[in-house]
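Entry 12.
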Amino acid sequence: MNENSSKYQVGGQAVIEGVMMRGKNFWSLAVRKPDKTISTRLFKNSSLALNNKFLRLPFIRGVVVLVESMAVGFRALSYSVNEATEEDIHFSRKEMAIAIIFAVAFSVGVFFVLPTLIGRSFSEYFPNTIVYNLLEGLIRIIFFLGYILIISQLKDIKRIFQYHGAEHKTIQAYENDEEVIVNNVKKYTTLHLRCGTSFLLIVMIVAIFVFALLGRPPLPLRVLYRVLLIPVIAGISYEFIKFAGKFSKYRIVNILFYPGLLLQKITTREPDESQIEVAISSFKKVIEAEEEFKNGKVVKGMASG
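Predicted 3D structure (tokens):
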């Protein structure tokens, strides 16, 4: 969000029938239960970067944020399933790690390795390295867009996208100094410059330029480079998305990052009032905790696990 010292930096994620909001020191989860009540839980945010200056350096911090966001996201998702279904489903740390590894392997395989293998089939027709990398990058972006379009047709995903919209609206009301209540939140757009969807699109675009610098090595090396350089690409992309959030009030920034906003028209949907209430509950919980922590008070009511 806009880097204003009077405000807390808050990000979020939509989960099953709920919203996770994450601050600097805490993250919260609010889920609409089958009986229509809202279950809200608070967790300590154990970030490695909090006490390590090196991990907060530009281009390094992006990788740290990405890994930690995935870990918190999977935890929030597993908790939301329990609350939304009222079933006692628990995942061990080992199971959680396996799930994250599988998700990363799938993403790397489909969006980085596969386009490179497909690109080999037309490699000889495009001797110019820059043109070849542009075409390979285009395949990567088409795969990414196709994946989003396909999952957006699923009923359960559509509801998650509504909660995604509620998350964005809530944060924007806060950023614009509005009282965070339903009527104020409703009037804001579901699109936000700092969205993870925009970040992923930036990753795809940055990858084109990074890979172009490597020329066209033999296929095995080409695939290896695609995999090994993902942290570098993520680090660069994070700086772009952070820049966008910091200078979001400038029209030129919104124009430059408009493709990411356009893509959010797929990954966010207009939420109803009950979904906005869930997002607000999660948001207020984490803000209250951050305020108590800032004032040196003991933060109570944190969930374990």
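Annotation: The chain has a mean pLDDT of 90. Strands lie at 11-15, 18-22, 26-32, 38-44.
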